[in-house]
Design a protein that fits this description.
Elements: E1 16-28, E2 32-38, E3 43-49, H1 55-63, E4 69-78, E5 86-97, H2 111-116, H3 118-121, H4 125-146, E6 151-152, E7 158-159, E8 171-174, E9 177-181, H5 186-196, E10 198-206, E11 219-228, H6 232-253, H7 255-260, H8 266-269, E12 277-279, H9 280-289, H10 302-309, E13 316-319, E14 342-347, E15 352-359, H11 364-373, H12 382-389, E16 395-401, H13 402-410
Parallel strand pairs: 3-5, 6-10, 12-13
Antiparallel strand pairs: 1-2, 1-4, 2-3, 4-5, 7-9, 8-9, 10-11, 11-16, 13-14, 14-15, 15-16
The protein binds 4-amino-1,4-dioxobutan-2-aminium adenosine-5'-monophosphate and magnesium ion.
The site of 4-amino-1,4-dioxobutan-2-aminium adenosine-5'-monophosphate has 22 residues, from strand 11, strand 15, strand 16 and helix 13.
């Protein structure tokens, strides 16, 4: 028996192969069954002619419900009319395990229903397309940094202190001490950047976000490069070069999936550097000219980002946000300490922030004052302050959220479909 996959079927034309998979759909003319078999790599039509198999096999296929697991043996034939260009003429057939009535039928289901059946919903064409794009994005991310001298470092998941503010911490008991799930690997990355120069961390991060939005998850994946001897402007250059590379890779590798998702690829093709760069104050002016009533010095909300990004045909970078709306570690702008050396990269088409980062405060005294001003426990940051004592250098980095990037590249209205099992407000099953 030669086992084949749908993805690799072209190399078996004219030969007999066995395909192991699940019955995706079926239609029958009485004398011929047309079985759509899905094996995880794709779907193929298997043509079962009554006269060419045993009566038992023909009958077994007839009775077989949707999503049963099946083993099909037959000859591969090229067929221009079929969706993927090939079909299998069935010689023998076996139901491995007959499915109970499958809850997800071709009819339209509500999102709540589909989310409850997420473990089964993953079998659909749409979810296949999204998760394949996700896998390509992740591989492109790794390749980008691996090929450019960044060392992969793994930062801890269990941490004693907050990186991104204390309001979104998941707290847990660490042998009688308080600990938290990490919000970001950045602080540890600053230590590894001082050790290795250019580093990146890539792992799950956690935020107890107490509001329901289309862009927030409780658990999401973030890639975080950090570079020693790097200022804000160099950091922006890396961010835009990196993002243009990732989008280019998806366009090269995942056209079929983007078509399945009916994604208009013109806006993706427009993702070419340089990206427009706006000082926070310029961004506020544009917002007000377009109907936003954002008060002076406020952070942008999701709606503001939507208005702003709709004014441009490609991603934009907003820099120098007010220090008051950003984290304690941001370097102050020497010319106007009201602002900090931060940057957010906002995706077009209304998607908004997918990257947050900036230049870090490298001065010991200024950093201590910032920790105090943010009412953070100084003792938890002893090791972090050491980095400013022993060979402090200008350094910068950023974090890209994988799920927001998947949502934008796939053109999805909500972040929930970008990860196999999303963790959302008050929802942890399946
Ligand atoms: O802007 P954030 O909070 O930045 C940091 O965590 C920095 N410490 C990163 C760094 O400089 N190394 O988060 C970075 C990105 C956001 O731009 C967004 O894409 C994503 O992480 N993100 C979320 N994605 C999904 N759900 C959430 N709740 C997210 N919070 C942030
Ligand atoms: Mg941010």
């Amino acid at each position: 028996m030669t086992r084949a996959t749908v993805e690799g079927i072209a190399q078996h034309v004219g030969n007999e192969v066995t395909l192991l998979g699940w019955l995706f759909a079926k239609r029958s003319s009485g004398k011929i069954h047309f079985l759509q078999v899905r094996d995880g790599t794709g779907t193929i039509q298997c043509v079962m002619v009554k006269a060419q198999v045993s009566p038992e096999e023909f009958e077994a296929a007839d009775r077989c419900p949707q999503e049963s697991s099946v083993a099909v043996t037959g000859t591969v034939r090229q067929d221009a009319r079929s969706a993927n260009g090939y079909e299998i003429d069935v010689k023998s057939y076996r139901t491995v395990s007959a499915s109970e009535p499958y809850p997800i039928s071709p009819k339209e289901h509500g999102t709540a229903f589909l989310m409850e059946h997420r473990h089964l919903w993953l079998r659909s064409r749409r979810q296949h397309a999204i998760l394949r794009v996700r896998a390509s994005i992740i591989r492109a991310i790794r390749d980008y940094f691996d090929d450019r001298g960044f060392l992969l470092v793994d930062t801890p998941i269990l941490t004693p202190a907050a990186c991104e503010g204390t309001t979104t911490l998941f707290e847990l008991d660490y042998f009688g001490e308080k600990a938290y799930l990490t919000q970001s690997g950045q602080l540890y990355n600053e230590a590894t950047a001082a050790a290795f120069g250019k580093v990146y961390a890539f792992g799950p991060t956690f935020r107890a976000e107490k509001s329901k939005t289309r862009r927030h998850l409780m658990e999401f994946w973030m890639v975080e490069p950090e570079m020693a001897f790097c200022d804000l402007w160099q950091n922006m250059e890396v961010a835009e070069d990196f993002l243009a590379y990732v989008v280019g890779r998806v366009l090269d590798e995942r056209r079929f999936e983007l078509t399945t998702l009916e994604r208009d690829i013109k806006p993706l093709e427009a993702v070419q550097k340089p990206f427009p760069r706006l000082h926070y104050e310029e961004a506020v002016k544009i917002l007000r000219a377009n109907g936003s009533d954002i008060p002076d010095g406020d952070d942008f909300g999701g709606d503001d980002e939507t208005i702003l990004t709709k004014q441009f045909d490609r991603p934009i970078i907003v820099h120098h946000y007010p220090s008051a709306v950003k984290a304690f570690y941001m370097k102050q702008d020497a010319e106007d300490p009201k602002y900090c050396m931060s940057m957010d990269l906002l995706a077009p088409e209304g998607y908004g922030e997918i990257i947050g980062g900036g230049q870090r405060e490298e001065d010991l005294g200024v950093l201590q004052a910032a920790i105090a001003a943010h009412k953070l426990p100084m003792e938890a940051f002893g090791w972090y302050l050491d980095l400013r004592r022993y060979g402090s250098v200008p350094h910068s980095g950023f974090g890209l959220g994988v799920e927001r990037t998947v949502a934008w590249i796939c053109g999805l209205p909500h972040i929930r479909e970008t990860i196999p099992f999303p963790r959302m407000l008050e929802k942890i099953t399946p």
